[in-house]
Amino acid sequence: MRTIIIGCGRVGAGLAGRLAATGDQVTVIDVRTEAFDRLPEGFAGDAVRADGTDEDVLRRIGAEGADRFFALTEGDNRNILAAQLAAETFAIPTVVAKVNDPVRARAYSALGIATVCRTDMLVESLAAFVGLDMDDSTMQVMAPTGHHPGPHGRVEREGIA
Amino acid sequence: MYVIVVGGGKVGYYLTKELLAAGHELVLLEKDRGRARQIADEVGSIVLARDGCEGQHLAEAGANRASIVAAVTGDDEDNLVVCQMAKHHFDVPRTIARVNNPRNESLFRHLGVDEIISPTRMALAAIEQDIPVHELLHLAQLEGGELQLLEAQIGDDSPAIGRRPTDIDLPDGCSLFVLIRDDQAQAIRPDTVFRVGDKVLAITRTECEIDLHRQLIGSGGSEG
Predict the structure, then answer these.
(1) Is any Cβ of chain B less than 8 angstroms from the Cβ of A157?
(2) Claim to verify: residue B111 and residue B134 sit in the same structural domain
(3) Residue A124: which of A138, A112, A111, A114 has the closest Cα?
């Protein structure tokens, strides 16, 4: 398996370490070199300092033919752009974007990108901790619920607000 | 016409003033509070200190009755998200995005942005008029940017040298129509044989530009 991870924060570095330990071929990208200090000792993958929302950069690091792509920077919109590049331009089969705004997370899973929402996860786990009912679905990656309709299409609307 | 402008930088600011002067109904969303107030002092209460990437804020701004949403912040990713939310959640008929990285243009179009404004592309086109930096000279955009009118110069490394148009594997949606040789224009016929120094005028779908480059200029040159 070839995996590309954009954003080497705690989550990106942690996931990179886990996957590399299982023998995955992992490339992790961040715009700051210091970010790679978070990678575990003896990390067997590649670490590249570059902008993961740039198509040329993704091509250079071999996005074509990669199996998995995780967009895990601190910016929701950066993750959304990188993930759509991965899915639409490079046709990577498994693409996940971290999107902390719950509205945007749901909107983009309807547009064909799997999303993971830290806000929903924290709210649910904290509510569960103090005894409220827990919505298990928000504790997982939200799988795509639709496809991107292409340039002129429309998707089924979910109400906002 | 009701227009929502997202991003109160230089472009958003002047755009807002021009649209207001032309008598359009308009709201400007600028997420920086200080900047929003500064613009509001000049143009009035049509400025909301809101992040246009949030569905909630677009809803408050009346996106469901907007004819146009123009996302002109300095960040490509923000402009993409604004346009996608406008298009897919509020059925806004026309979305416009400012795009700084020219490589994002075809992706943004594919993802449903109707109109692309590319300051980089415009500056590049102006420079290329004098210096053909990419060997593929952009002469004009047609059909709202879906088609490009290009001039390709056949150089020493071109794989097209000595070949006829029918021997060249061009992508669909790409046609070669005029040849300029020895300062004379001539129609490209099936028996035309390309040679070094020829200039070929082509019309191509924007996404086929790279293929055209490969066939006429070769992979040795830099890609446009």
Answers:
(1) yes
(2) no
(3) A138
Contact assignment for B81 to A149 by CB distance below 8 Å? no
- Note the pTM of the prediction, 2 decimals: 0.73
Residues B135, B196: one domain?
A: yes
A154 in contact with chain B, both atoms CB, cutoff 8 A:
yes
Task: Kindly determine whether residue B112 and residue A103, on different chains, have CB atoms separated by under 8 Å.
Answer: no
Interchain contact A159–B (C-beta under 8 A): no
Q: Which of B55, B60, B80 sits opposite A103 (nearest CB)?
A: B55
Q: How far is CA B136 from CA A161, B133, B139, in A?
A: 48, 8, 9
For the segment B181-210, the average pLDDT, to the nearest whole number, is 89
Domain residues for the domain of B6 are 2-117
In a domain, B124, yes or no: no
Who among A54, A80, A153 is closest to B81 (CB)?
Answer: A80
- A66, A2 Cβ separation under 8 angstroms: yes
At A36-61, the pLDDT tens digits run 999 999 999 999 999 999 999 999 99
DSSP-assigned letter for residue B170: P
Q: Which of B63, B90, B117 is the last residue of a domain?
A: B117
B89/A153 CB distance under 8 A = no
Q: In CATH, which superfamily holds the domain spanning A2-139?
A: NAD(P)-binding Rossmann-like Domain (3.40.50.720)
Q: What is the pLDDT of residues A91-138, one digit of tens each?
A: 999 999 999 998 899 889 998 899 999 999 999 999 999 999 887 777
Subunit contact A53:B77, Cβ cutoff 8 A: yes
| ipTM computed for the complex | 0.83
Closest-CA residue in chain A for B87? A154
Rounded Cα distance, B87 and B64, in Å: 10
Whether B140 and B105 map to the same domain: the answer is no
Domain count, chain B: 2
8-state DSSP, A142 = B
